[in-house]
Amino acid sequence: MLHRSSGDVGLIASGLILSEVLRAADMLAAEGIEAGVIEVHTIKPMLAPEVIEQEARKSGTVVTIEEHNIVGGLGTVVSEILVSGDPVRLKKLGLIDTFAESGTPEELQRKYHLSERVSAKKSARSLIERSLSMSKYSLHKSQAQIMEMPGRTIYLMVGSDKLKSDRMSFGVTEVPPETDMPPHTHESEEEIVFIVEGYGEAIVGGSVEMLEPNTVVVFPVGVEHLTRNTGKNPMKFTFCFNPCRDFSK
User: Among 3.40.50.920, 3.30.390.50, 3.40.50.300, 3.40.50.10860, what is the CATH number of 2-131?
Assistant: First the structure.
């Protein structure tokens, strides 16, 4: 069962631990991290494996959480589903190859550190950071420089203090439903955007360009333009500026 669609990370859970996973997803959302949640109520038969594969491809990062041995359990089944496709980073949380003792669910979660790993009382960020491999040449969206601007939220990833570039800026813009970004002009940078999610239109120098997923648009230097989300859902697109744009101006 898909509780939430994945964005930055997919959380796949089975058992009573699901309630804590949902709370952890709320905490991740509060930090600007889009966490999908999939509930798996039977390991065999595994129902709708295509949903797991589809959601995993969206984020490229998956964490499985189970009140079970990670050997031969949910994490193993998920890894078998994903192994034939594109690479996906996978972290398994559960019992580390040991026999479980008897006790209440709360006692066993404390005993095997499951509650500590996904509880809303703990830092939600640590959950995703354990699932990612960072380097000085890569950056996750959760670490981006976030800027609230009229009509949109910008996640600056390349060309920021966290991942520098002398020649370009790159990041993700999210536009709320039925919202216009104000008209503006870039005096010294060319901008290219790629629509990831949502539908709308771009007005470039008086020309109206329809926007949908997998559409690319070029905004030339010195040409006034705006982007409009005409849909009922948020619009998400990547942007690239050349040369690097100074967003402080």
Answer: 3.40.50.920
Closest CA to 87 of 111, 109, 57, 115: 57
CA 8, 14, 18, 24 dihedral sign is negative
177-221 pLDDT tens trace: 999 999 999 999 999 999 999 999 999 998 999 999 999 999 999
**Residue 227 contacts residue 198 (beta carbons within 8 Å):** no
d(CA 72, CA 93): 13
User: Hey, which CATH number is domain 144-242, 3.40.50.720, 1.10.1040.10, 2.60.120.10, 3.30.420.10?
Assistant: 2.60.120.10
Is the entire prediction scored with pTM above 0.90? no
| Rounded-to-integer distance, Cα 18 and Cα 68, Å | 13
Residue 59 backbone phi and psi in degrees, to 5: -100, -30
